[in-house]
């Protein structure tokens, strides 16, 4: 048939329909970029980043005044250290195809992320959001070793831990590794972050040994307003931590937001009730600790359980952590700021209750099967992170001394580590309060 103008004119509607159908098919295959989801995820990543300075205030207020800067610096330096390592290889290890335990290196240096979309958001945004998780995971560990670990040793251990323990574990749960394939539920990092950091902190405290005077003098936080400020920032930032893990502005994010608030409020009240029931007074430090414990406990479950179930998670998490703090001597480790009792124990409770209560939103496998999977994930994380951290600390100890000298520890390590101090004498000659030696 000759393609005369008349034939072409009559065929135009058909050609338009065919070309339109092809375009629609191509569009259906392409990732659907969504500006609303992207805007929310950028905000969520910023909120999670803000959590680490909040943790610095929380930890800093709990320590002696002579070591407040060093304590806060270990959180702040985690931001710089982990963000660089995450770009160089941590992200690739966690989130590119590899084997069941370890990702590949195809995205090292964020190679190939430009102009790609993860779900409905740019891959750069996803990588940045996950970077903030990696940052605070390392910062959490510092609370167990404050006032006695050399700053350089913490940096070396932290870099190795982030690349060789955190990133592989993230791959195993979220990046296509065996725990995720098996069906382990961890919405926002109860296993990957809190159990991992908690048990690693406990091991680090054990390897370093107790502080001088541990067990003989009472621990008195030097700045309780710092503790409250840090806890408030953590609660604020945790909304991005949990609701952001929906990776979009959607119903799952809304559920995570609600359950996070309910569980945290319940945990704070529960902690205060336990303090009062033991014959004491409800304290500001107790309120701050309780709300942080509630945030930890609900993290793995926030997008999988109903609001009423989150109430159970908050109460159970706070109860377990409260009594773990009371009997922390049983751990035989000077975990200075109770990282394992508050993050490790609450993370374990939250991970197990995720399996027990996921049915409240119709998610997960049958109850018995899901509980078995959650238990397997918890036990593996405890062994993997505990043994791995022990080996890394011993290796670091071969290169650098892990502890400061006894005189530096007694006098406080701000001056010796940073040539600065948190509180100086003012013009009136009044000094900042000095805390009694801590346990």
Automatic annotation (TrEMBL):
It is found in: Cell membrane; Membrane. Residues 39-423 form the Ammonium transporter AmtB-like domain. It is a multi-pass membrane protein. It holds the Pfam family Ammonium_transp. This is Ammonium transporter. GO terms for cellular component: plasma membrane. The lineage of its organism: Bacteria, Thermotogati, Deinococcota, Deinococci, Deinococcales. The keyword Transport applies. GO terms for molecular function: ammonium channel activity. InterPro entries: Ammonium/urea_transptr, Ammonium_transpt, Ammonium_transpt_CS, NH4_transpt_AmtB-like_dom. The chain crosses the membrane at residues 37-60, 72-94, 124-146, 153-175, 187-208, 220-241, 253-274, 283-301, 307-325, 337-359, 371-393. Keywords: Ammonia transport, Membrane, Signal, Transmembrane, Transmembrane helix, Transport. Belongs to the ammonia transporter channel (TC 1.A.11.2) family. SUPFAM superfamilies: Ammonium transporter. The keyword NADP does not apply. It comes from Deinococcus psychrotolerans.
């Amino acid at each position: 048939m000759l393609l005369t103008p008349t034939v072409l004119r009559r065929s135009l509607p058909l050609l338009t329909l065919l070309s339109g159908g092809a375009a629609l098919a191509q569009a259906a295959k392409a990732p659907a970029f969504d500006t609303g989801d992207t805007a929310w995820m950028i905000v969520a990543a910023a909120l999670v980043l803000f959590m680490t300075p909040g943790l610095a205030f929380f930890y800093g207020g709990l320590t002696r005044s002579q070591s407040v800067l060093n304590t806060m610096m270990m959180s702040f330096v985690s931001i710089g250290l982990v963000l660089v390592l995450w770009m160089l290889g941590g992200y690739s290890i966690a989130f590119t195809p590899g084997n069941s335990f370890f990702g590949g290196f195809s995205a090292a240096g964020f190679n190939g992320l430009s102009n790609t979309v993860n779900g409905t958001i740019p891959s750069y945004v996803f990588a940045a959001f996950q970077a903030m998780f990696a940052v605070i995971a390392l910062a959490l560990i510092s609370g167990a070793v404050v006032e006695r670990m050399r700053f350089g040793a913490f940096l070396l251990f932290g870099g190795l831990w982030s690349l060789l323990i955190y990133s592989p574990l993230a791959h195993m749960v979220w990046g296509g590794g065996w725990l995720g394939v098996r069906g382990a539920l961890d919405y926002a990092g109860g296993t990957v972050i809190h159990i991992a950091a908690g048990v690693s902190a406990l091991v680090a405290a054990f390897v370093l040994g107790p502080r001088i005077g541990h067990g003989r003098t009472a621990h008195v936080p030097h700045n309780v307003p710092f503790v409250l400020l840090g806890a408030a920032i953590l609660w604020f930032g945790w909304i991005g931590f949990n609701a952001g893990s929906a990776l979009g502005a959607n119903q799952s994010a809304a559920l995570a937001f609600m359950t996070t608030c309910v569980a945290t409020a319940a945990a704070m009240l529960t902690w205060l009730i336990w303090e009062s029931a033991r014959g004491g007074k409800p304290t500001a430090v107790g309120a701050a600790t309780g709300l942080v414990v509630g945030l930890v406990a609900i993290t793995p479950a926030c997008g999988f359980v109903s609001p009423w179930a989150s109430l159970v998670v908050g109460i159970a998490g706070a109860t377990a952590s409260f009594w773990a703090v009371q009997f922390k001597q049983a751990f035989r480790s000077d975990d200075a700021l109770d990282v394992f009792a508050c993050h490790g124990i609450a993370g374990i409770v939250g991970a197990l209750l995720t399996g027990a209560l996921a049915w409240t939103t119709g998610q997960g496998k049958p109850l018995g099967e899901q509980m078995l999977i959650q238990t397997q994930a918890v036990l593996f994380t405890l062994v993997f992170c505990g043994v791995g951290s022990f080996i890394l600390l011993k290796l670091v100890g071969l290169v650098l001394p892990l502890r400061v000298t006894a005189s530096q520890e007694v006098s406080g390590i701000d001056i010796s580590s940073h040539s600065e101090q948190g509180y100086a004498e003012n013009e009136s000659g009044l000094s900042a309060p000095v805390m009694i030696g801590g346990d």
